[in-house]
Amino acid sequence: MADEVDEAVVIAAQKGDAQAFAEMVRHYDRRLRAVAYRLLGDRSSMDDALQEAYVKAYRALPGFRTGAAPGTWLYRIVYNACLDELRRRKRRPVQPFDDAGLDSRPDGAAPPADAGLAGRGDLEAALASLPTDQRIALLLVDAHGYDYAAAAEILGVQTGTVGSRVSRARATVRSMLQPQDEQQSPDRDAKEDR
Amino acid sequence: MSDEHDDELGAALRDLNVPEHRPGFWERLERRLEADEVVDGSSDGASSKRVPVLSALARYLPLVIAALVILLIIILVVF
Q1: CA–CA separation, B79 vs B68, rounded Å?
Q2: Where are the beta strands (DSSP E) in chain A?
Q3: CA–CA separation, A49 vs A132, rounded Å?
Q4: pLDDT at residue B47, rounded to an integer
Q5: How near does any CA of chain B get to the CA of A77, in Å?
Q6: Low-confidence spans in chain A with pLDDT less than 50
């Protein structure tokens, strides 16, 4: 994950510069919103978890080791805040709802043409069907580009565990997104041959 | 363990909508940081904490000293 905030911003934030801290969290905010929303399932819970996470991060900042990846550190705090929120509220399984305030891609561009996967709603549902630990692993590695070691650090598990979770998540999502006609293609091909 | 990425799935995941914060999110956060509100600790990387009382004392220390000096002068003058 190369897109880290400038180290000078982190150092300023560590010295108590609230503006620098705001700049730091805003740098990662969209990605952290994506993680929190996909783990918690609604905008209100997402905001609550991120409020707690950002306050905790601010208070923990003096202990942050300069030179470490602030993104990884922030993701870990947000992930734990989401787990706290899930435990506290004992939420129902995540469903793709509450579309109020949804933005599109950061640049405002429309989603690209179908790259071979099913529609966005189907993908949303497939993702929501995954267990939390597989869902977060898939998001960190495939959507946010973390390598297994960094994802393992965020999740507090072994690297191999991340690999197996990602592998299972991909298999589940792809099987759910496989178009119906593709699943029946052998029969159809046989008929077409006759 | 290789670090392979599923680029196609990754791109599709990144295209999923993400909600904006509710109005007032950043203002609320700013207020909380200023007040340095205490939140329940939990098991994450956020173990070291600022000390609100000490930081407030440090901020207002010059004012406190000035007030004490003035008070001392008043006491000396009166008595």
Answers
A1: 16
A2: 102-103
A3: 15
A4: 42
A5: 6
A6: 97, 99-101, 103-115, 186-194
Distances (CA, A) of B6 to A22, A67, A174: 32, 29, 11
Cβ neighbours of residue B49 closer than 8 Å, sequence gap 6 or more: A59, A60
B19 and A22 within 8 Å at the Cβ level: the answer is no
Residues B25-42 pLDDT 10s = 999 998 888 886 444 344
Predicted structure pTM score: 0.71
| Residue A4 DSSP symbol | P
Instruction: Tell me whether residue B9 is exposed, middle or buried, using C-beta atoms within 10 angstroms of its C-beta: 0 to 12, 13 to 18, 19 or more.
Output: buried
Select from A141, A97, A137 the least CA-distant residue to A121: A97
Closest CA to B9 of A86, A29, A120, A35: A120
User: ipTM value of the model?
Assistant: 0.75
Chain-centroid distance of CA A96 in Å reads 14
Rounded to a whole number, what is the distance in Å from the CA of B52 to chain A's nearest CA?
Answer: 10
User: And the tokens for A99?
Assistant: 């579309």
Contacts 24+ apart (CB under 8 A), B60-67: none
